[in-house]
Amino acid sequence: MIKSLITGIKQKADFVVGKVCPKYRIHRDLCSLCSTLYTKGLISCTDGNLSTRLDDQKILITPKFQNKSKLQPSDLVEYNLHDKTRPKNVTSEASLHTLAYLRRKDISFVLHTHPLYTTTMSISHPELIGRPYFPTSVLLLGKVPIVPYYPPGSEELARACADALADSNVAILKGHGAVVVGKSILQIQTRTEHLEWNSRAIYLMKNANSPTLTEEEVKQLESRSRSLGVLDGAWGWKKHDFIK
Fold first, then answer.
1. Domains contained in the chain, CATH given
2. Does 171 have pLDDT greater than 90?
């Protein structure tokens, strides 16, 4: 008991401002991203959750019911991906993160947010979000699947989201928010922010007959994106996604 107490005190000391141990730098970076997302309005107070893969077994994830704008490194929770039981203070969407990591061995981060335009457009105009209107969206996002509604925190939602992310880096949860995955904090932040930009732009346009990029233009962007290493997910647009 004394040994564990001393260990806990040492870990707390590592989080003192200006004395962040390299081992815990990722904790600080996750908290910083949460604060940024809150400032940009992509999450609000206790909304959303974020995690990173520590190794083949463990992930580090945000806790439940805590203000994301004031999150501290010591608030983050570690747990084993293969354990059936999880810490009581882990986010209610832990299964969503777990299944995403188990499905995608190539990713290091999972981010779930509640962006306003993306969430509302997933209900009011879901057929528009998936269309390739803007070249930057094609480059950064690829084809964005919309996951049907399932109760938040449910195993059904976690499985459906993992299926959607099997060949995509971005998924929209109908009426609920968005989930992005990536290999770095920069990737998941970029994808999240641009997804909301894309949704807002489509909302302002809000015309089902507005012309999209052509199939040939999308193919050129796909080739360009892969050569730059910008997009490593799927494309998969259908004929009905293109409007002349």
1. 22-241 (3.40.225.10)
2. yes
